[in-house]
Amino acid sequence: MNILVTGSSGFIASNLIPKLKKAGHHLIGVDSLDSKSTNHDLTSDYCSHHFFNINELEKLSQLLVDVDVVFHLAAKGNVVESIDDPLSNFQANVSSTLSLLEAMRVANCKRIIFSSTGGALMGDTSPPVDEQTLPQPISPYGASKLACEGYLSAYSKSFGISSIVLRFGNVYGPYSSHKVGVINRWIRLAIEGKPLVIYGDGKSSRDYIHVDDLTDGLQLALGRIHDNSDSVFETYHLANYAEITLLDLKEILECCLPGEKLDVIYKKARVGEVNKNFANISLAKSKLGFNPIVNFANGVSELYEWIQANEYSS
């Protein structure tokens, strides 16, 4: 198939593109380079990258001619930044998604797989959440993803654009040097011998998924959307169905430093951040065949080694 990937220089795309190329697909990438990632250098042999903002409707429409499926991975995903600047987050996530859907309508491109979020979308709803749980976002970032899902549903019904929405858990893994999520941030602090910072009491939880499992799920969604000839709008949670607290993560990270204990500085919990979240992935298992296999402790250890080798080697 001819596949267009937005956010093609990003963390998830850099892990997905080689898999798609190995499967024989022809790949076009679009990235604004706002994240400062240079990962496109790693995949330039597999993907034709174009660097512009996807709000540029005319450029995007031209690229979408003869494209079979879009993987929409581009987004601003930082909750704290969305609270500091909600309008910028709206422009980067909602406005750009609407522009992409309009470009797809103009170019007669009929299939899109969208990267949504589980935790930020659901807010402080009691876990485990699933596809029937009522979304209650508590941050502008979570609200932006819910708005995008609304537009995808509307364009599916109004214009026959098939959509599969994938609500990601907290993704981690290699090729994430531009990411500042808690796992990457804590690994860097541990390598530098600095104390970890916990906002709250350390009992807040997330459902972490390794990027290798996640990209397998993205490929499964590609197969499902390709096999459906009628317009569809489907939603799935891609996670591990496992609740990991910050204190759990601290213990796992200490296993990467035999004999050492990590110091912790506790600070006040931050506004907009979800307290507890993990997702029931039964629907993705039954409908997509999704089956995450990466052990979390092993994945963290491998990422520790990757960051040390790629960010701290002389």
Q: What's the layout of helices and strands?
A:
Layout: E1 2-6, H1 11-22, E2 26-31, H2 40-43, E3 48-51, H3 57-64, E4 69-72, H4 79-84, H5 86-107, E5 111-117, H6 119-122, H7 140-159, E6 162-168, E7 170-172, H8 182-191, E8 196-199, E9 205-206, E10 208-210, H9 211-227, E11 233-238, E12 244-245, H10 246-254, E13 264-267, H11 282-288, H12 296-311
Parallel strand pairs: 1-2, 1-4, 2-3, 4-5, 5-6, 6-11, 7-10, 8-13
Antiparallel strand pairs: 9-12
Helix pairs in contact: 1-9, 3-5, 5-7, 8-12
The share of residues in extended strands comes to 15-25%
Counted beta strands: 13
What is the arithmetic mean of pLDDT?
95
Instruction: Name the overall outline.
Output: globular
Query: Count of helical segments?
Result: 12
Could you give the order of the helices and strands?
A: EHEHEHEHHEHHEEHEEEHEEHEHH
Strand arrangement, largest sheet?
Answer: 3-2-1-4-5-6-11
Question: How much helicity do the residues have?
Answer: 40-55%
Pairing-aware structural class of the strands and helices? Answer: alpha/beta
Radius of gyration: 19 Å
The first-to-last residue Cα distance is 41 Å
Point out poorly predicted stretches: none
User: How would a crystallographer describe the biggest sheet?
Assistant: 7 strands, parallel
Subunit organisation of the chains? single chain
